Amino acid sequence: MKKRLIRTILSIAAFVPVFFIMPVISYAEDLILDGVYAENIPLGGKTEQEATDAINLYLQELSTRSVTLYTVNDNEVTVTPADLGFKWANPEIIQEAVSIGHTGNIVERYKTQKDLTYSGKILDIKFSIDDNMVRQVLSEQCASYNIAAKDGDISLEGGSFDITEGQVGMVVDVDESARGLEDFFLNQWSGQNTTYQLTIKMDTPNGTYEDLALVKDVLGSYHTSFKTSSASRSNNVRNGASLINGSVIYPGDEYSFYNHVMPFSYDNGYQLAAAYSSGQVVDSVGGGICQVSSTLYNAVLLSELEVTERRNHGMIVTYVDPARDATIAESAGTDFRFVNNTDAPIYIDAYTTDDKQLFITIYGHETRPAGRTVEYESEVTSRSDPGPDVYIQDPNHPIGYIRTQSAHNGLKANLWKVVTENGQTTRELVNTSVYNAAPKYITVGTATEDPSAAAALSAAIASGDTENVKSTAASLKSAADAGISADAQALAQYEAALAAMNNEQSSEDNNDEPEEEPVEEPVD
């Protein structure tokens, strides 16, 4: 009986702590407990949103601190963390703060609350920066202090090369500096004004003296003629040659012809000249530049460099054989590109002569076996006729104006590379080029206020006889210049024909012949 009483008393005593604990741990489940901090920011008694707002306010203050970046030669660039895309990297600590003391059984919660009372709980705030914004600061503001390497230079004077050795530079290593800044803000920054030494690296120039000294051999040379070109087209060929002359391409680098001759403008030395466009010949600033790219293409082929982009013209050209041309077009983004696949720099020598010859030679380091020969053969595999003449009536020019564009046959052609070495000859297909056929385009001026003249010219055009069109246009122009209407002219022609018949009958008595009126040739 006594033992049972003791056990009862002990059982009641076991529940007494619970009775007294319960009031102590009674609190709002959505509030962070006192004693929880994010860095030095007290979060106790705050809701999740209030805690978030408190930390964001702290971050706004930090984002105005100064960060001094040391660049080349210890030059300084001062920015703020905000300039680097400063942001909060671990917002999940808010959820962690809310959960402290709200999880586990009642004993665990009680223990957590007591721990917070005596020692508190400090959560670390992690920072990060935006990689794109960092790189922009490094590439724009810090790069202004870079000392870029100066590439070596080579020039051809009087048949020999002059060499200028390159100079080493010092530049900010953007990749390493961006990674270093990210680690600094994530793991080391104290939140105060600070400095940071960027990673500086050597900028190695292209072309040591030894490299450039290898440039002495002719790898390939080609020339074309522009003797039949107009003055403006000849100017464009000469200008294009001067723009690529002296180009140096280092091993592994790709050369863009377009990038070296653009823009096609008067300020860049070009004039208005004929060029192909959509199957017709039109005037274009820079017309004729494709003769330069085509001549260079052939020199590149003979040098056995790697061609990475080349397209043929839409219609056949006359200054190189079929499949040996290379067109460029600004509107279509068409370029001629090649890669220096040799072990040394190559040099482009381009010039024109007084008798309108274009010469392009590529110099470099010859490593091909002696006795190896390289030739290229153009093979036309099919032809197509241009079709009937096409008349274009142009109301912007008066009657008498006639301009013709020659017809072009369509072609399909292969270009073969023929190599002879050690007595063995191999043939390799380089490209297959297709050229469109184009009819003769005859542009006829039709502007007139005389309906009869317009009808007469329309009838001539409908006949499809170019000579008839030319003679009719010339006759109508002559009459218009003399102030004679088409109807009056027709009457005059009738009376003249009648008089000629009468004169023919009386000419038996005298040997006089009618004098022909001179006819003014239309513009062509």
Describe the structure.
- With about 525 residues, this protein is α+β, with helices and mostly antiparallel strands.
- The chain has helices at about 1-25, 50-60, 95-100, 105-120, 130-140, 175-185, 210-215, 230-245, 255-260, 290-305, 450-465, 465-480, 485-505, and strands spanning about 35-40, 40, 65-70, 75-80, 85-90, 120-125, 125-130, 155, 160-165, 170, 195, 200-205, 215-225, 250, 255, 270-275, 280-285, 305-310, 335-340, 345-350, 355-365, 375-385, 390-400, 400-405, 410-420, 425-435, 440-445.
- The strands form ten sheets. The chain has a four-stranded antiparallel beta sheet.
- β25 and β26 (about 425-435) form a beta hairpin.
- Residues about 10-25, about 495-500 and about 505-524 have low confidence and may be disordered.
Question: What attributes does this structure have?
Answer:
single chain, 524 residues, alpha+beta, 3-stranded mixed sheet, 13 helices, 27 strands, 33% helix, elongated, disordered C terminus
